[in-house]
Amino acid sequence: MDSPVPTPFEIELKVRDYECDMDHVVNNAVYLNYLEHARHELLETRQLRFGELSRRGISLVVTRVEVDYKASLRSGDRFTVRTTLQRSGRIRFVFQQHIHRSADGKLMLSAVVTGTALNARGRPEFPPELEQAFG
């Protein structure tokens, strides 16, 4: 039986001038910040807060990022980051992320971000909070 496709979490953001390079487009590294912000916001909707987890010795870490740049955002562009989260195996989770320009819906970037949780000893562990978040 296939597991249901998760509903994407969406957040709209706006490109700021200082995020652009000399060609007046968003610098490629800045997109990683957009993706991370969206992941944090999604996790908060599932009652997972980095500060609280960290105080308990649990660290959520990225282990792999695959990014396909499709087109460039420019200063002032509004855009939506769509993010879905799924479990991958015993100790991994995967975020599928897409950035679309709001004005026309054009796909600007797609990414797959893989992560895991580490316990206080730095060992992979899937704590109960994550189990609940994947409900």
Automatic annotation (TrEMBL):
NCBIfam families: YbgC/FadM family acyl-CoA thioesterase. The lineage of its organism: Bacteria, Pseudomonadati, Pseudomonadota, Betaproteobacteria, Burkholderiales. Signal peptide: none annotated. PANTHER family: 4-HYDROXYBENZOYL-COA THIOESTERASE FAMILY MEMBER, NOVEL THIOESTERASE SUPERFAMILY DOMAIN AND SAPOSIN A-TYPE DOMAIN CONTAINING PROTEIN (0610012H03RIK). This is Acyl-CoA thioesterase. Keywords: Hydrolase. The keyword Hydrolase applies. InterPro entries: 4-hydroxybenzoyl-CoA_TE (IPR050563), HotDog_dom_sf (IPR029069), YbgC/YbaW (IPR006684). Belongs to the 4-hydroxybenzoyl-CoA thioesterase family.
